[in-house]
Amino acid sequence: MGTSTARVPTWLLGLVPLVIIIAAIGGFAALGGPGLGERSGPPVEELAVEATKLRPGIIELTVRNDGPDPVTIAQATVNDAFVEFEGATAAIGRLETATLALRQPWIEGEAYEIGLLTSTGGTIAHEIPVAVETPDVDLSFFGLMALLGVYVGVIPVALGMLWLPWVRRIPPAWMRAVMAVTIGLLAFLAIDATLEGFELAGEGSQAFGGSALVLVGAMVAYLLLSGTSAWVSRRRAAARAAGAGAGTLAFLVALGIGLHNLGEGVAIGAAYTTGALALGAFLVVGFAIHNTTEGLAIVAPLADAPVRFRRLMLLGLVAGAPAVLGAWIGAAAFNASAAAFLFGFGAGAIAQVIVQLAPALRDEDERALNPVSVSGVLAGVAIMFATGLLIAA
User: Fold this and answer.
1) Residue 213 CB burial class (10 angstroms; 0-12, 13-18, ≥19)
2) What percent of the chain has pLDDT over 90?
3) How far apart are CA 71 and CA 68, in angstroms?
4) Which terminus, N or C, of the chain has the lesser number of Cβ atoms within 10 Å?
5) SS3 breakdown of the chain: % helix, strand, coil, rounded to 5?
C-alpha cells in the first residue's frame, strides 16, 4: 500500500478527497436531499433596506432579500397609511435586490415610518429619522466630498505632524511617555472603528455575515500587515527590537490611521447623502481637532531618525487622503456591509501597529506596563475621548 501511494503524485493525493466531497454534495443536492422531507411552516421572509433616496414626492428604497425564501412585496405604508409604489413587481429571490419607488409627499425634517407588507402578511419596517432630499451625485458633489475629506483628514494630520521638532528634543523618558500616548490614541481609534463597524453591520444585510464582517476585516488586516512587517524586518538589517525600522513603524502607523479614516470617510459621505450629518463649521472644526492628534502618532517613531520633508508629506497623505476616498464611496455607492468590513479592516490594522509599538514602552527594567506607559496610554485615550465630544456635540 505504501509503495503504490508513493508512486501517485502528491497533488493528486490532495485533490482526490476534494473531488469526492464535491461529488457527494452535488449528488445529494441533485436528489433533492433524500431523507430530509418537505419543510413545513410559513416561509422565512427577511428584507434588509440597503439604501434610501428621497426625491420630491418619492421615497425610494433599495432592498435585499436576506432570507432563504423568495419575498413578494404586496403593499407599502408610510406612517401607517397605504401608499402606491412602483418596482419590485416580481418575487425577490435570495440575495437579490429590488428598488421600490413609494409615491409619498414628504416634508423636510420630518420622521417617517415605512412598512413593507409581503404577500404572506409579513411586515418589514424601516425608519427615516430625518427626511432630507438626496443630493445629485455630480462633479460638484464629488468636489464637495473631496473638500470635506481634506478638512477632516489631510489638514488635521498634517498639523499634528508639526510636533516632530518637539518630539526630537525631549529626553528618552519623555519619549516613552509620547509613545504611550500614541498607543492610547491608536487604541481609542481601534475601539471606535470596531463599534462603528458593528453599528453599520446591524443596519446592512445579515446574509453576508453581519457583525462577523467587522471581525473578519480586522483579522484580514492584522494578518496581512503582520506578514508584510515580518517580510520587511527580514530585509532590514538595522531593525528595531519592535521588528521594524523607524520609517517602517511610521508608515505602519500612517497606514493604520489611513484605513480608519477611510471608514470614517465612508460614514461621513453616507450620512451626508441621507441628511443625517449637519455639515456645519463647528462639526468640521470638531473633526479637525479630533484628528489632529493622529499626526503626533505618526511622527513619534521618527524622533531619532532623519527624515525628508517629502517623506513626511507622503506619510501625511497615507494617513489623511483615504478620508477623501471614503467620502466618495459613502456618498456615491454606500453599502453598510462593505463599510462594516472597512471599519473592521482599519481596526485590525491599528491593532497590528500597537503590537509593533509596544516594545518601545519598556523601561530600564524591561517592563512595558510601568507607571509612565500606563499613564501615557490612559492620557491618549482621554485625549481622543475629549476631542470626540466635539463631534458628538
Assistant:
1) buried
2) 8
3) 9
4) N
5) 60, 15, 25
Return d(Cα 103, Cα 82) in angstroms, integer. Answer: 10
Residue type, 288: A
- Chain segment 147-176, per-residue pLDDT in tens: 888 888 888 888 888 888 888 888 877 888
Give the residue ranges of DSSP H helices in 358-370.
none
pTM of the model: 0.71
Q: Which grid coordinates belong to 339? A: 463599510
Count of C-beta atoms within a 10 Å radius of residue 234: 10
Residue type, 44: V
- C-alpha closest to that of 117 among 106, 128, 127, 126: 126
Indicate the average pLDDT of the chain: 80
- Could you give the CA distance from residue 210 to residue 222 in angstroms, rounded to a whole number? 20
DSSP string across 190-211: HHHHHHHHHHHHHHS-GGGTTT
Once rounded to an integer, what is the mean pLDDT over residues 211-226?
Answer: 88
Domains of the chain, first to last? 47-128 (2.60.40.1890), 139-392 (no CATH)
Position 331, amino acid: A
* Alpha-carbon gap, residue 53 to 332, rounded angstroms: 12
CA–CA gap between residue 116 and residue 129 (Å, rounded): 17
